[in-house]
Amino acid sequence: MKTSVTGIFLLILLSVAPQAVMAERGTTQSYPAAAGEKLVNGVANAATGFVELPKNVILTSQQDGAAYGLTVGFLTGILHAVGRTVIGALDAVTFLIPTQPAVNPHYIWQDFNRETSYGSQ
What we know:
Elements: H1 2-25, H2 31-48, H3 52-64, H4 66-93, E1 103-104, E2 117-118
Antiparallel strand pairs: 1-2
């Protein structure tokens, strides 16, 4: 009995959560389109997260010099590569609950000259 009550509760939660998120976003995009967009974004970020490494070395070298870029930029790139990859994987797994992407810019190839940030902006 306890298992069936838990199962029913989870079923209700999973059926209501996407609509609640869509209402909170105030979007006119349909649920399938928003879920599909989150899935594509998640897969793309999980697959291309490693590009953060050279991106951060280049950006840091341009701003602060080659030696700083090869040290601090390299370490920053590793952190951003892990962050983009993990968040992308989480977005791909949870695509049924469409939310705004947590990584900015949304894709690595968008606005390549801007440092990656996380959270809603």
